[in-house]
Amino acid sequence: MSGVVVDRTGGNRLGVCMLDSTSRVSTYFHHLGEELPLRGVMGSGTIFFTSCNFRCAFCQNADISRDRFNGVVMNPRQIASAAVILRLEGVHNINWVGGEPTPHLHNIAEAIRLIARDGIKVLDELSDEEYNAVLSVKADFIPYNFSRDWAFYGNELNVPMLWNSNFYMTVDVMKLLRVIVDIHLPDFKYYNNKCAFRISRVPRYFEIVSRNHKLAYDWGGEDMIIRHLVMPGHVEDDSKPLLKWIADNMLGGSWST
Q: Given the DSSP bridges, would you call strands 72-74 and 183-186 parallel, antiparallel or unpaired?
């Protein structure tokens, strides 16, 4: 992607996401509404971050994606602790989502590093204030019991990582995700760049997002489920050509109208 480079570390100049370098978590919970292969019987362990790099007119999570002050600030150890709590409660994966998780990648990557290094001991290093902040945004309606049996294979903590994203990101980000992500759940919204800009306010949409889908497919190694939203009035200029592109480039040309 090209455009103005924004240094978010100082907080003086913000990008489209309107975030500084801190991350805010709106909620985290056992998501029982994801695709069946992802939610299983115990849910996908969803961690919802605030803000987004899109401005979709149809956004169903506008209170999260548009309000950068939603939720609570969490450092990487707190984020890691939320993931470990969910995994010990039996979720099948940790679902990084928002909004859009990409602006939070620096903190997510560090959280994953802490999980890999410290395992469930990440919880031991939290202060009471930090732990209470983590618990304050847990949004499950029913309590879940902790069990090592959910999360361990032998003596190893196992935490499958799911990247739930609009896939509008750089190649460098894709390369980093290749190392830390097990499952991709990307959106593929538009074929027509004019539609993408008018409805979601993003330039060069198809060039960037199709490239990233093809990269993930060509690299292999990660499972991927592609989501496409069929919108009224956009079947001919978006849905049909987009599905054909997926078939031609990722499924061996099996699409026909």
A: unpaired
